[in-house]
Amino acid sequence: MTVASARPWSLRMAPVALAAVVASAAVGLARPAQASGLLVARFGGEWGHPMSDDLWAIYYNPAGLSLLTGTKLAITGSFALRSLSYTRGEGAIDDILEDPSVGAGTPVGDGVLANTGEAKLSNFLATPFLAIGSNFGLEGFGAALGFYVPIGGQSIWDRGTPREGFPGAEDGPQRWWVIEGSARALYATAAAGYRIEPLRLSVGLGLNVVFTAIDNLQARNVDGTDTLTINGNLQEGRAHTQVSSVDLAMSAGLLWEPVDNLFIGLSYQSQPNFGEQRLTGTVDMILGGGPVPEDPTIQAELRQELPDVIRFGVRYGKPKCWEARAFMDWARWSVLEEQCILNRETGDRTCAGAAPPGKIIIIPRNWKDAWGVRAGGSWWPTQAIELVLGGGYDGTSVPDEMVEPAFYDSEKASLTVGAKFNLADDHLQLMVTFAQIFYFDRDVSPRGRVPRDPNVPDGPTYSDIESIGLREAVRLPDSSGLYQQSISVLELGVSYAF
Q: How many CB atoms lie within 10 A of CB 245?
């Protein structure tokens, strides 16, 4: 048996060895993360926060819409350049075979080189924000409609080094988690805010229609290992997942002005579908060690939960002179315990148990809640120009034992500079910001190996997943190694007030 290179898909579906699939969550594959864990929403730059009185409030805190005057249209684009490298060592390999003709594992020499080494990507990502809002001539009221992508991205890894006899090596050592893919959640939002003037308190509500789509390709074996050969026969395969869903979500917020120009904001953004999402679509698979099926397509369902988010912040200043801001967010990523991909044609399908009926693959996550904090300010050298500066720290939702290339994240710091220009008697505004995000390197230690058969301690091995609390049904290759990432984000925007 031979393995075809993973590009293009028509070649990936040539007679190859075993394949299965991991579908990436709508949290994204390549993401300019500047919020708790893997959240990517940063549209609005330094003006996007839970104390906003502009159209960015449609997502960050709908209560801020109560401060709109007239009618306003805003369009922005965030343009991110992401660089990521992952270096995998020999300690991550499930089993190394001294004799490539005997047993299941990774043969020494070119086999080991095919399963280790450095993988790199350098991807460009553009995400839009479009909103229109108005107070409809009613003081203390504002409503808006918006379209934006707070969660999502894409990941296309550079080609790796060819290894004789192991064509899968050209897709790099990260291929067991992702070769190329995309995951996006598009939000269509209707929101409104109302200010209760005697209390100087604004309240807001928003309804989101969330369009989630995932398209992912990777290498994977049926037993969840990184085995390249069995008794000299190639086993590595490919799989392709395309799933999507349409779900509802909601938001709510408060914005209080206890004294002039001091605003305290608190907002809540619910989980998509208020809990578990079920994305439906197809998985194209080739099973290794056997003939290519006439129809490799399986009707699939992906089950997952994405977090709800709480935001809180304060801003104070003198209008058109200076302003200081501080805000934070907390995301409940602990709800993402697993991503479960099942065969929709199995009636009693479930994600539970040692051998779940209908299982295609179950991806362990076991993430944790994450938080981030930012501070910044504005200064007006003239009435028409506002300069901004901000910085922050964001934690990570992904513990060491769950780190992998498709969903990489780490603790990070960020620095943002920007400007807003008010033209045409403040009817026209032009905005530009630049953010550099500094990710802390992560060097994750191997899990270690244990015998496949406890009764044969000197026999074949695979990585120790029991030590990190995983059951055999969710086995994945060991993703230990060195991770290094950098993201730069340029945001350009224009808004017009009627």
A: 21
